[in-house]
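Hi again,

Forgot to attach this to my earlier email, sorry! This is the prediction with S-adenosylmethionine bound. I've pasted everything inline since the attachment limit keeps bouncing my files.
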Amino acid sequence: MARPVDSGGGEFRGARERLVETLREKGIRDLSVLRAIEMTPRHNFVPTGLRHRAYEDAPLPIGNGQTISQPWVHARYLELLELKGTEKVLEIGTGSGYQTVLLSHLVAQVFSIERIAALAQQAREAIQRAGARNVNLSIGDGTVGWREYAPYDAILVGAGAPAIPQPLVDQLAEGGRLLVPVGDREEQQLVVVQKKDGKVTTRDIAPMRFVPLLGSHGWGIDEGR
Ligand code: SAM
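Structure tokens for the complex follow:
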């Protein structure tokens, strides 16, 4: 697991503690998830002009028409995975890299794919600054997964898909969990896909709103905008 090098300094510590308290009040119970949020300087993952808003429980723009997701959404995702610390995890949609770093505190190995090269580069720098060493990044279409390192104990999709991408189900380990928002471009249902005894089951969790997952097993480039 990663050790934080840049804890974010004193300037934002109070704001970060208040965010953790807000998440607790909104029902997040997993202490390791709350600790990861307390350790991770979200202000380093948002544009400089938005740093003063970094610890609001809200999504924020990160450029290229994309967003860093709401902290509660990240916390809920991580809680639903019921992580033990030994997992190999695949994240689709690195975006700002913030959730990538949260994951790096909670699992053994993180693989993350982003389709927009400029965001991937920014994320790479922010992840390095956070001191995460167990992260591997790739630029490309995450809807096909990352076959080379499969299977994964958990897979998280951070963008809304029209249907569950089959390559991700195929790359899920026995006993593993895949989280993916499925629906139309406006609203999706967060679905947990589980693979147990060779059988695949799905469970709806809650309505969510994400930017579209674009790719060969997602929305077409023109459909997604
Ligand atoms: N967890 C990230 C965060 O909070 O910064 C989520 C970022 S945003 C909500 C979703 C990201 O998914 C965007 O950066 C978008 O470019 C990316 N994305 C969309 N389709 C993708 C695909 N097929 N492969 C990889 N990334 C994709």
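The radius of gyration is 16 Å. Helices lie at 13-25, 31-39, 71-80, 98-106, 117-129, 166-170.

That should be everything now.

G.
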